[in-house]
UniProtKB/TrEMBL annotation:
<protein>
    <recommendedName>
        <fullName>Adenylyltransferase and sulfurtransferase MOCS3</fullName>
        <ecNumber>2.7.7.80</ecNumber>
        <ecNumber>2.8.1.11</ecNumber>
    </recommendedName>
</protein>
<dbReference type="InterPro" id="IPR028885">
    <property type="entry name" value="MOCS3/Uba4"/>
</dbReference>
<dbReference type="GO" id="GO:0006777">
    <property type="term" value="P:Mo-molybdopterin cofactor biosynthetic process"/>
</dbReference>
<dbReference type="InterPro" id="IPR035985">
    <property type="entry name" value="Ubiquitin-activating_enz"/>
</dbReference>
<dbReference type="GO" id="GO:0005829">
    <property type="term" value="C:cytosol"/>
</dbReference>
<comment type="similarity">
    <text>In the N-terminal section; belongs to the HesA/MoeB/ThiF family. UBA4 subfamily.</text>
</comment>
<feature type="domain" description="Rhodanese">
    <location>
        <begin position="347"/>
        <end position="457"/>
    </location>
</feature>
<dbReference type="Pfam" id="PF00899">
    <property type="entry name" value="ThiF"/>
</dbReference>
<dbReference type="GO" id="GO:0005524">
    <property type="term" value="F:ATP binding"/>
</dbReference>
<feature type="active site" description="Cysteine persulfide intermediate; for sulfurtransferase activity">
    <location>
        <position position="412"/>
    </location>
</feature>
<feature type="binding site">
    <location>
        <position position="297"/>
    </location>
    <ligand>
        <name>Zn(2+)</name>
    </ligand>
</feature>
<feature type="coiled-coil region">
    <location>
        <begin position="5"/>
        <end position="39"/>
    </location>
</feature>
<keyword id="KW-0808">Transferase</keyword>
<keyword id="KW-0548">Nucleotidyltransferase</keyword>
<feature type="binding site">
    <location>
        <position position="113"/>
    </location>
    <ligand>
        <name>ATP</name>
    </ligand>
</feature>
<feature type="binding site">
    <location>
        <begin position="181"/>
        <end position="182"/>
    </location>
    <ligand>
        <name>ATP</name>
    </ligand>
</feature>
<feature type="binding site">
    <location>
        <position position="300"/>
    </location>
    <ligand>
        <name>Zn(2+)</name>
    </ligand>
</feature>
Length: 459
């Protein structure tokens, strides 16, 4: 009887988890579906932007504080009203940028993003609110910008910028702002801007640092002039890996808005061939001169080899989204799934769970009984960590009957670092380490949260 009650309770718990996951999915689908009608999911030709000949009384009231600036004045304001800007990415940079461009009275704002709003976006993507979770970022940003200034024409594009649509889209705008977060998109936006002769105001933000420059403007270099070869994919970090303090993209997005406004109003930007770096730790901006436009540049040089858009994911060796950056370093038999690990836990099979994330992430959440040794410490063979690991293996051996190899399962956030850790452990010598059987848990803790335990925090 008691056994039956227990089993029913366990079944009920399982079904509750499934229901919670389904409810979440349903609400996200409903939100994006109801708003989908207004969204542009493909590129359509736009009607030309109507040029204002004079400011209305309402315009004068609304923009009075900036009209007073001799640097802007009435002509600058009229210039803003006839300028269109395409914002690529409505995330940490795109939100403040779009907010200030709308407030300043830019004529037309194209807001492009393939993604939907998530809770973890809200600390920095300030145009989106809690009620927008699950909604297309492009639409959420467009609605927020319209609330701020209904005279600005906002066009939401819920699509991924790609080699197929970039030229058609970018040709319809006067200025482009790159607010994306991945290398293939940066090259794509750059090449499309060079091929269509548009200035590109580009920024980035990570951890406590930001950068800004203006490409393809006033005879200055393009992105490829400076970075002809993409960086190795494993050296690139983004906000979901490295973290970012929300204010930092806030500052950099505002800075992008400033340069866009200066270009659009006619003052001009001084950031061509200039890289501005912001260090939030020291509260300091520094500026360095970049090399000039390169005659040998593949896209803007004298004999360009890139005359049309290419396959940027192959060129960079990485995906144009940060959603599927999954490495496959280990053979299948050296990896277990989160379901496999759940059954190991349920059956109480003796093993060691090694969590190789940095301590700061382990403090956010972790599975019970895991041993934390960050990947960097394993790579550097830090003596105290290796000793700790060996002690735990000895304990495990004592606990296990017979002479089979003690199993070590390695976990991280997404299943990339854990594979690297397996490779490091395999190369290690020493009697305790030699005898282990080490495997990686595919998809890491985020797969655990999605597939096994919906109450486990996703970060
Ligand atoms: N090729 C692309 N087409 C459309 N949108 C893009 C493209 N590449 C990147 N983006 C968008 O650019 C934005 C970058 O912003 P940011 O890095 O702040 O957001 P995020 O990807 O939501 O963050 P996180 O990495 O924390 O999940 C994202 O919303 C992303 O969807
Ligand atoms: Zn160039």
């Amino acid at each position: 009887m008691a056994q039956e009650v227990c089993s029913l309770k366990a079944q009920l718990k399982e079904q509750e988890k499934e229901i919670a996951a389904l409810k979440k999915k349903l609400s996200q689908l409903e939100k994006s579906h109801t708003s989908a009608l207004e969204l542009h999911d493909k590129v359509r030709p736009l009607t030309p932007l109507k040029a204002k000949l004079a400011l209305s009384n309402e315009d004068i009231m609304r923009y009075s504080r900036q009209l007073l600036l001799p640097e802007l004045g009435v002509q600058g304001q009229l210039n803003l009203s006839k300028t269109s800007v395409l914002v690529v990415g409505c995330g940490g940079l795109g939100c403040p940028l779009a907010q200030y461009l709308a407030a300043a009275g830019i004529g037309r704002l194209g807001l492009l993003d393939y993604d939907e709003v998530e809770l973890s976006n809200l600390h920095r993507q300030v145009l989106h609110g809690e009620e927008n979770q699950g909604q297309a970022k492009a639409l959420s940003a467009a609605n927020a910008a319209r609330r701020l200034n209904s005279t600005v024409e906002c066009i939401p594009y819920h699509l991924q910028l790609s080699s197929e649509n970039a030229l058609q889209l970018i040709q319809q705008y006067d200025i482009v702002a790159d607010c994306s977060d991945n290398v293939p998109t940066r090259y794509l936006v750059n090449d499309a801007c060079v091929l269509s002769g548009k200035p590109l105001v580009s920024a980035s933000a990570l951890r406590m640092e930001g950068q800004l420059t203006v490409y393809n403007y006033s005879g200055g270099p393009c992105y490829r002039c400076l970075y002809p070869v993409p960086p190795p994919p494993e050296t690139v970090t983004n906000c979901s890996d490295g973290g970012v303090l929300g204010v930092v993209p806030g500052i950099m997005g505002c800075f992008q808005a400033l340069e866009v406004i200066k270009i659009a109003s006619g003052q001009g930007s001084s950031c061509s061939q200039q890289l501005v770096m912001f260090d939030a730790q020291d509260a300091r901006f520094r500026s360095i001169k970049l090399r000039p436009k390169q005659a040998g540049c593949a896209v803007c040089g004298e004999n360009p080899s890139v005359t049309k858009l290419v396959d940027y994911e192959s060129f960079c060796g990485s995906a144009a989204t940060d959603k599927c950056r999954k490495l496959n370093l280990l053979p299948r038999d050296q990896r277990i799934t989160v379901q496999d690990y759940q059954s190991i836990m349920d059956k109480a099979v003796p093993h060691l769970l090694l969590d190789v994330r940095p301590l700061v992430e382990v403090e956010i959440c972790h599975l019970p009984f895991s041993l934390n040794i960050p990947l960097s410490s394993l790579e550097e063979r830090k003596t105290e960590h290796i000793q700790l690991f060996q002690e735990r293996i000895s304990q495990l051996k004592q606990q296990m009957a017979g002479d089979c190899r003690p199993p070590v399962y390695v976990i991280c956030k997404l299943g990339n670092d854990s594979q690297k850790a397996v490779q490091v452990l395999e190369k290690m010598s020493g009697s305790e380490v030699d005898s282990i059987m080490v495997k990686d848990i595919c998809g890491g803790l985020m797969a655990w949260a999605q597939k096994i335990d919906p109450t486990f925090p996703q970060y």
